[in-house]
Specification:
This protein has 73 residues and is mostly beta strands.
């Protein structure tokens, strides 16, 4: 179960890692599963990932979602 921060919008599996956690769960916008972990990656989501962050290695569908995007070839 993932939690979001009411103050900054950060997401974490452990609410102790957030400054102002909610008790709400998050859902996957790609596959529709509810109450997923912050690190949930389904087949549909994995196929949409086109960019990687050169700083932390995070992947995203849009370059605007990353601080130092690099197109995955």
């Amino acid at each position: 179960m993932a939690h979001t921060c009411k103050s900054c919008g950060a997401v974490a599996d452990d609410p102790g890692h957030l400054c102002n956690p909610t008790v709400e769960t998050i859902s996957c916008s790609y596959c529709g599963d509810s109450d997923v972990a912050a690190t949930h990656v389904c087949r549909e989501k994995l196929g949409a990932m086109k960019f990687s962050c050169q700083s932390c290695g995070r992947v995203a569908a849009e370059d605007s979602e990353l601080c130092k995007p690099f197109k995955i070839s």
